[in-house]
């Protein structure tokens, strides 16, 4: 195919919720089975042979990235393009990548090192087949409760029907130009972007949902590192 597929990892944050004693640096650099989590994540993306380059956006003052030994370093580009928010980092890194508007970009969380090769392949195949952006996600399996605070305690306000509810994951795959324009529009109009799909939805698009897997969980809390080490 004429258009390229690139991957983009926004890695400009510190992951405060995942901090534990002895690990004060950004969580993406904490080791899992002796290897920084970010490196595991890069490896997962490089498993797909059609991804021409992985672009990583880090904070301008990041002092850790130079110590990371990346696999297939010729397919990995580091940009000090971190911004004030995830959306800013994605936008800055997308611009720094110099990718063409018609290329595809897979935006993936640094804290999702458990991405399975079959899930990644399914997302890429589905988006290319339908020429339409999409994301990995999983249907909500449990009963969902909406909470309110009552005298300092979380209590149930109501039960939310889970039919049609999905938990968003990454990668999220879109045409470079379409995603760039959506992020620029959302920023100009003060819309809070929670993930790339939300920016696309804001601009009137309806991204595809492709079923992911539990292993593609986002490492968020200290205990998640042990669970991810088991899966990896």
Automatic annotation (TrEMBL):
<feature type="site" description="Transition state stabilizer">
    <location>
        <position position="27"/>
    </location>
</feature>
<feature type="site" description="Positions MEP for the nucleophilic attack">
    <location>
        <position position="218"/>
    </location>
</feature>
<comment type="similarity">
    <text>Belongs to the IspD/TarI cytidylyltransferase family. IspD subfamily.</text>
</comment>
<comment type="pathway">
    <text>Isoprenoid biosynthesis; isopentenyl diphosphate biosynthesis via DXP pathway; isopentenyl diphosphate from 1-deoxy-D-xylulose 5-phosphate: step 2/6.</text>
</comment>
<dbReference type="InterPro" id="IPR034683">
    <property type="entry name" value="IspD/TarI"/>
</dbReference>
<feature type="site" description="Transition state stabilizer">
    <location>
        <position position="17"/>
    </location>
</feature>
<dbReference type="GO" id="GO:0019288">
    <property type="term" value="P:isopentenyl diphosphate biosynthetic process, methylerythritol 4-phosphate pathway"/>
</dbReference>
<dbReference type="Pfam" id="PF01128">
    <property type="entry name" value="IspD"/>
</dbReference>
<dbReference type="GO" id="GO:0050518">
    <property type="term" value="F:2-C-methyl-D-erythritol 4-phosphate cytidylyltransferase activity"/>
</dbReference>
<keyword id="KW-0808">Transferase</keyword>
<keyword id="KW-0548">Nucleotidyltransferase</keyword>
<keyword id="KW-0414">Isoprene biosynthesis</keyword>
<protein>
    <recommendedName>
        <fullName>2-C-methyl-D-erythritol 4-phosphate cytidylyltransferase</fullName>
        <ecNumber>2.7.7.60</ecNumber>
    </recommendedName>
</protein>
<dbReference type="InterPro" id="IPR029044">
    <property type="entry name" value="Nucleotide-diphossugar_trans"/>
</dbReference>
<dbReference type="InterPro" id="IPR050088">
    <property type="entry name" value="IspD/TarI_cytidylyltransf_bact"/>
</dbReference>
<dbReference type="InterPro" id="IPR001228">
    <property type="entry name" value="IspD"/>
</dbReference>
<feature type="site" description="Positions MEP for the nucleophilic attack">
    <location>
        <position position="162"/>
    </location>
</feature>
<comment type="function">
    <text>Catalyzes the formation of 4-diphosphocytidyl-2-C-methyl-D-erythritol from CTP and 2-C-methyl-D-erythritol 4-phosphate (MEP).</text>
</comment>
<dbReference type="InterPro" id="IPR018294">
    <property type="entry name" value="ISPD_synthase_CS"/>
</dbReference>
């Amino acid at each position: 195919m004429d258009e390229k597929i690139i991957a983009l990892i926004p890695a400009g944050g510190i992951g405060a919720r995942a901090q534990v004693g002895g690990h004060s640096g950004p969580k993406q650099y904490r080791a899992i089975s002796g290897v920084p989590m970010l490196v595991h994540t890069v490896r997962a993306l490089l498993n797909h042979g059609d991804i021409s380059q992985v672009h990583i956006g880090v904070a301008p003052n990041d002092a850790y990235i130079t110590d990371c030994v990346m696999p297939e370093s010729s397919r990995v580009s580091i940009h000090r393009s971190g911004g004030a928010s995830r959306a800013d980092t994605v936008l800055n890194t997308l611009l720094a990548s110099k990718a063409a508007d018609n290329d595809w970009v897979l935006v993936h969380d640094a804290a999702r090192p458990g991405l399975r090769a079959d899930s990644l392949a399914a997302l890429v195949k589905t988006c290319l087949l339908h020429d339409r952006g999409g994301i990995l996600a999983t249907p909500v399996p449990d009963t969902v409760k909406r909470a309110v605070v009552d005298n300092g305690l979380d209590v149930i306000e109501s039960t939310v029907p889970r039919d049609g509810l999905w938990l968003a994951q990454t990668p999220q795959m879109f045409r470079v130009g379409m995603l760039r324009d959506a992020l620029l529009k959302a920023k100009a109009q003060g819309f809070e972007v929670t993930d790339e799909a939300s920016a696309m939805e804001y601009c009137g698009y309806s991204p595809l949902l492709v079923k992911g897997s539990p292993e593609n969980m986002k490492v968020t809390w200290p205990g998640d590192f042990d669970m991810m080490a088991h899966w990896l």
